[in-house]
User: Fold these one by one.
Assistant:
Number 1:
Amino acid sequence: MVLRNLNRHIAKSIPVCLFLLVFTFAGCLRNLQTMQTATETAASTTETEEPAPPLTELQLSTPKTNYVVKEEIPLELNIQNGKFDLLVPFFSVATKGAFTQITVKDANRQIVEPKRAITQEHPQKYVRKDGKSVRCIQGFDFKADANQELRLKDIQRYYQLQPGTYTITLAIDLEVYRESIIEDHPEVLELQSDLTRLQNDPNLQAAAKADAVNYYQEQIKLIKERHKDKVKDIYLPVKSRRGKASLVSNEITVTIE
């Protein structure tokens, strides 16, 4: 009799277990469908998002596409800045140093080696800031949305190009810096040096020192005011380098007949 009751209890429990199993499976299926929908929505959103605008763009061109042997082949470079003000080395965007990484390929897509490299010096200089000498390079304040236009007079000064068709591209590793220093006028630097020496003179009486300090400070102020509209070189502290952006231009085709 006990066995019969046990069987009856088990028989009643089976439908309940089946119901729980079906309910759990349905819940898992719903969660899976929800995850799939969310994933598809995220993927769809990612595909429709516009890519971030480039930091800076290089546009390479030449006045014409066909030249004769030994004719000058000038290259023109337009550097279009993006949405941010950038502190960059002067030689990278304002001199022929921008053309140091030219790649020339022949009709078989083989790289043509230059007969001599395009080089540009970028010497370092110590600039005074807050009474200290700071090691710097000459900088360029590249404003947002600004254009820089550069020209290389003749690529054949650097590449021996025989008759044929060539493709040309240009790359720039553009370094970006966090801060800049504007170097004062030479007269100001000289007066500041005299002022520092005077302030550190232990033999000068306080009253005389105060008068001399006031005089030098007034002279420095006058000179700065006189030269306030003059374009000043800026310098980038070497230690303030943030990183660099690798830029590549479009490809142009040139034919020499």
Note: Helices lie at 2-48, 90-94, 186-199, 206-226.
Number 2:
Amino acid sequence: MATKTLVLIAALAASTFVLSGCAAAPESTEDAAAAEYCARMVTNSGGLEDRSFNQSSWEGLQAAADEFGIEVDALVSQNETDLAPNVEQAVETGCQFVLTVGWELAEATSSEAEANPDLHFAIVDELVEGDNIKPIVFDTAQAAFLAGYLAAGVSKTGVVGTFGGGNQPPVTLFMDGFVDGVAHYNDKHGSAVTVLGWNKETQDGLFTGDFENVSLGKSLTDGLLDQNADVILPVAGQVGEGAGAAILERGNASLIWVDNDGYDTLPAELRSILLTSVLKNTQDAVVDIVGNDLDGDFDNAPFVGTLENGGVDIAPFHDLESLVPAELSAELDALRESIVSGEIEVTSPSSP
């Protein structure tokens, strides 16, 4: 009898072991944290598919969702009256992290961050102070310096042009770098390429006063083309598509895009005129900041994208690579290294 009892106990123990072995593994602390974490993004009035910083920021938040298994969503502002209410609505969702995009959202971000000290905020393209606000800014003048040098090197007319959507630091920072890049090329090559549309000394130039009206971009670009400009840098979000349309119509100039690689984001018909793009690596910055927040390592020190940390650069030449001589490409590589090392200092009143 005793032997049978021992056998039964052993069998029960074995079955218990098998059942426990089949049980689901306990959820890790990281998995649990991600399951409880969510993030919201608020766009400016350009919308999610602005082929500019809204789109790049949203791509970054989506990448964070894929990498960390968190829930994300975006609140799209249709006009200026939506900005503050959308930030307030993002806060009311109960999410731990709120990402806002553009200088227009600075006031609303600051106000909501002050009223909600336990939440964490980040804002793209604007320096906003606050214990719980992480600015994400980019020294785009460094990359635009390369683009200006490139533009001067490929120009056949000796005239290049630029214009902005508005006279504000995130815009004029590109234009300052572009003008200085052209000037550096002139110094190195004894040439006299001129830049239409921006005067760094007076901090004044051509602006549409708008980031959405494509027709304004076309008309301004027509004016630049009429003055023999054969490389155009629009810093105006969607308005820049009008520049592309004007160049495509004329067929005698090339386009430099900003924020993301226009070869991937612009209509395919513009690829044939796209020389390069001045890149801001917003996507990776957003992923890193969300990851740090999940790990409990959020801080309010501004992230500043530079050539050195890969936050800014210029895109490949894609279909127009044949326009860029090997010597010029090598000069650009050397120029990049000189900026990173500090041998060449790119400055602007708008530098972050």
Note: The mean pLDDT is 91.
Number 3:
Amino acid sequence: MESFRAFLKRKDIVISAKRYGIDALGAMAQGLFCSLLIGTIINTIGSQFHIPFLMNPVATIGGTEYTVGGLASAMSGPAMAVAIGYALHCPPLVLFSLVTVGFASNALGGAGGPLAVLFVAILSAECGKAVSKETRVDILVTPLVTIFIGIALSAWWAPALGSAAMKVGDVIMWATELQPFLMGILVSVLVGVALTLPISSAAICAALGLTGLAGGAAVAGCCAQMVGFAVMSFPENKWGGLISQGIGTSMLQMGNIVRNPRIWIAPIVTSAITGPIATCVFHLRMDGAAVSSGMGTCGLVGQIGVYTGWVNDIAAGTKASVSGFDWLGLILISFVLPAVLTPLINLLVRRAGWVKDGDMKLA
């Protein structure tokens, strides 16, 4: 047993919730952002501003035409897998082999491909690391082991994992349509909390394919956390903190939350308020990429995703136009309500003596 532990340590194979549930999951979201999400944004810019280079096909592969954005989106599987490998500290031959693994697991996982990529890429990467530099023909053995295990697991697991993820996502979206008030609260709070925790709300939403009305509630929860913390902590962190949290991430407050969890009360309560307002009053939907549901105001990706959904719905004929009410809902849910409600709720928390000056100061 000691020799096995020494082997794992030498290979930097750390079997832990942090390594797989935080590091790998967070990296997967970045890979998804740099492929599917960026591709969607490029397509939206091209269609809205009528830019020929972005609208016209630039490549035809297997009879399918791809635009610039389409090519970026098509590489989401390899991008996620390589990002996961990077987070797991894979040596070069393993990292490069994960391109094939990511493509296979994402393709075979269908709409729930991101979840399949997460599991398959982790196992393939760790197996590849285990054999890396253990033989004199490493350049053959390491890619063969990594790719063979990745393809085998993709064929065996990916369809089931993808299907399971989509069924869970479908249940959440169905429940939100059926009970928009209660599910609006639940989805908004849980996804918002996930965004601030050192895990990836974007990857979770992508893995579950969380779109529609539930996606709108998720956007509301994420915005409540990011804008809420940014405005609430403005007296302590000034403009730098406003920008870094408001369009960066509320995860910056995690250290302060550990020291005093009560600073989290105001953003969570705000998300419980804005979630059902999004679902019941404005019927805010995320019909863009599912990963956008868990991004909030980070780079304004959540808002771009909602707008992209509007554009897609108009193109599909399911929506006549983008109304002033649509814009009002998006602006209120994303920016105004979190910026107003969170400081007011925090004022009550401060008066109760639960939060004091300096509790939200960023290092």
Note: Residues 138-178 form the longest helix (41 residues).
Number 4:
Amino acid sequence: MQPLLSVECLSKNYGHGDIFHDVSFTVDAGETIGLFGMSGSGKSTLGKCLIGLERVSSGHVLFEGVDLFTLSERKLRKLRPAMQMLFQHPEMSMDPRMRLCDSVTEPLAYHERRKRSDVFLDLLPLIAAVGLRSDLFSCYPNQLSGGEIQRAMMVKIYSLSPKLIIADEPTSMLDMSVQAQIFGLMKNLQKKNNTACVFISHDPYVMLAMCDCIGILDGVRFRMMSAEEFAEYVAILSV
């Protein structure tokens, strides 16, 4: 069986040197791969390249065997529901002029040509699953806490039943107790839907809690480790 996502010899530069170079790995359905590196290591740029939000300088990204960078913009748009990105600042993905109920129903209403009110009714079980009250969705983003907005963003993303989620530091702006809740929700939804995840973080302990194996961006070098090997790597860093 072919991997859901295959990354082959991926490189990216902006004309003043490589951001990352010769990155290769695969992700299977239901698997979580971590991308670890310090600030400025290129991990967020790599995450955007994995779903075609940024072009690469060389290499290939194959989603279900299809090279994303050979597709027309129209065909890439058709794949978008299956590939979603959960950002560090979820409020930036929410229109401040729209109520949450409109924001979270917009993608599904668009792709399925349905009324937003009907979509919202279908999303009630998912809203309950992420621990939010349905009446909160009549609010605007600035009326909610960071944790509530991130949960609402999870409703928006998981409503599309994506096969792959790129999670870019999704909890780094939240306190520790809320982080733990979001991690638990992500794991539960991932298991339920057999979703693959690429989890991006600079926190090694988050990597160990969430990931099956971890790729390290160190300068332009890239190397993949099992969770056990990464735990040893973190122990050495801590000395």
Note: The first strand starts at residue 5 and ends at 13.
